[in-house]
Write a structure and sequence with these properties.
About 60% of the residues lie in helices and about 10% in strands. The protein is α/β, with parallel strands linked by helices and about 500 residues long.
Length: about 500
């Protein structure tokens, strides 16, 4: 009966229903929470207590994953991966195609990224470096690419400069369309040089991505020893250390929160998707037709494209080694706040993967049913919690208590709720303190001209976490899901990078 009903609905409207669903769930939750607070405040209080306790348990077990991931990170960076990879047969046959899509980034940012590449310990004559610019930025990009080619281009096997034309029908201007265009140019080069695709590892980096010196040795070793290397993506740990000492406390907390989230995902690879800077086989890229060029979140979508292409026989392998990027910094504090919000909303727009996932999974009969359900649940629960949890915990959780007291309620739940919630919040401080300590262990050395009290601020800044979770978590996530729900689709907005 359901199938018969769906056949009567045009496919466009079916897909729109899937786009509407995540945002609708968020707004239904908010409306019900407010309505229940007025109609049945005691029920609402009981729900909030259970909800907060659930999140306390969740925080505690996520701490276990975070600490486990941190230990693996420390162990990984201490090993000599160049020595390990050289013990493998034919290790020097692997090439690396490293993509740096850019749009109006300052030359200092990209120069730093390329400098880190030059300083890595994998042979530079196995690198194809790709600077991918936009036609709309032709003048700036041409000058930038010529300067960088002159300074560092000769260090690599190939230094390729591509210019993505504007106005191609069906494309969305942004990183996805730019890097997809560059990918086709690299394919042409590999065909000309007769280099097999499965011997090329593609790394899609942001313009500000600086690699750990052992990144490519570790990546090559992991790829070469994987039982099915072309059916896997490789996700490093994203840290935001390039300009961390000169950035505001607010954006530092947000950036490190992202790092800690990725840490917890890395020890649960069944939940892991590609995020921001990542690596994968060039053969897989060719077989799925490169990155999708008409969406905002191409970094996670490429993983789903491969999952669909290989009927679920695809995985994301965690790399417990860092790549460093910029903390959001603007010319003024308010420009920083605005840029940070835009970045968080763009990341939250990964909700566009939910309808894509459900739509394609229902049409794929080869992929295991339980695997489909796991992906759908992880994606749906993730975007839902991102939007709702902080607001329910820190704002709406207090509304039914206030209303119950206003109405003169004398129930046991009402009288004890403030004490119970206070105990839960105090217990959750364990997570906050752990993040504060670990964040100092991830910091690069303090510049000599920075006073010692700056290090104290690096710890105390974590008192801002309730503000960041709401203003730069719930609100932009709700914003992104609401736009998708209403069909007011987002375009790709580049995060400005400023080096002081």
């Amino acid at each position: 009966m359901v199938k018969r009903l769906l056949k009567r609905i045009p496919e466009y409207r079916q897909y729109r229903l899937l786009e509407i669903f995540p945002g609708a769930m968020v707004w239904v939750t908010f409306v019900l929470a407010i309505a229940l607070s007025f109609i049945r405040p005691v029920w609402a209080i009981f729900f909030i207590i259970v909800f907060d306790f659930y999140w306390l348990v969740r925080i505690l077990y996520m701490l276990f994953f975070m600490i486990t991931s941190f230990r693996r990170y420390r162990q990984t960076i201490k090993q000599d991966w160049r020595k390990k990879v050289e013990q493998l047969p034919d290790w020097d046959q692997y090439y690396h195609a490293v993509f740096y899509p850019t749009y109006k980034e300052p030359i200092e940012v990209i120069r730093g990224s390329l400098a880190s590449l030059v300083q890595n310990n994998y042979p530079l004559d196995r690198f194809i470096v790709v600077l991918a610019g936009e036609e709309k930025d032709r003048e700036h990009f041409t000058a930038l690419s010529e300067t960088l080619r002159r300074e560092m281009g000769g260090s690599f096997f190939k230094f390729l400069v591509t210019l993505h034309p504007s106005g191609i029908e069906g494309e969305m201007p942004g990183k996805g369309s730019n890097i997809a265009w560059a990918g086709h140019r690299v394919k042409d080069l590999l065909d000309e040089l007769h280099i097999p695709y499965d011997k090329v590892i593609a790394s899609a980096f942001d313009a500000d991505t600086c690699v750990h010196p052992q990144y490519f040795s570790y990546l090559t070793y992991t790829y070469a020893t994987h039982p099915n290397p072309t059916h896997a993506s490789y996700q490093p740990l994203a840290v935001f250390n390039n300009n961390v000492w000169e950035s505001p406390a607010l954006t530092r907390v947000i950036s490190y929160s992202t790092t800690f989230w990725l840490m917890t995902e890395q020890v649960r690879p069944e939940r892991l998707f590609t995020f921001s800077s990542h690596s994968m086989s060039f053969q897989a890229l060719v077989e799925v037709g490169f990155w999708q060029s008409d969406i905002v979140t191409e970094d996670s979508r490429i993983c789903l494209q491969c999952i669909m292409e290989y009927d679920g026989n695809y995985e994301v392998v965690p790399l417990h080694i860092p790549v460093s990027m910029d903390v959001v910094v603007g010319h003024t504090f308010w420009e920083t706040v605005k840029s940070q919000y835009v970045q968080q909303r763009r990341w939250a727009y990964g909700v566009e993967n939910f309808p894509y996932m459900v739509w394609n999974f229902t049409r794929n009969t080869s992929m295991p049913f339980l695997q489909k359900m796991r992906y759908i649940f992880n994606q749906g629960e993730g975007v839902y919690s991102w939007a709702t949890a902080p607001i329910l915990i820190f704002i709406l959780g207090h509304l039914p208590i206030w209303l119950a007291n206003y109405q003169g309620s004398t129930s046991v739940v009402t009288q004890n709720a403030p004490h119970i919630l206070s105990w839960i919040m105090n217990a959750a401080m364990i997570g906050l303190l752990t993040q504060a300590v670990l964040s100092t262990r991830l910091l690069p050395p303090k510049p000599k001209n920075y006073p010692n009290w700056k290090l104290v601020i690096m710890v105390l800044q974590w008192i801002l976490i309730p503000v960041t979770l709401i203003v730069f978590g719930s609100i932009p996530a709700t914003d992104a899901q609401t736009r998708l729900m209403l069909g007011k689709y987002l375009g790709f907005q580049v995060t400005k990078k400023v080096r002081k």
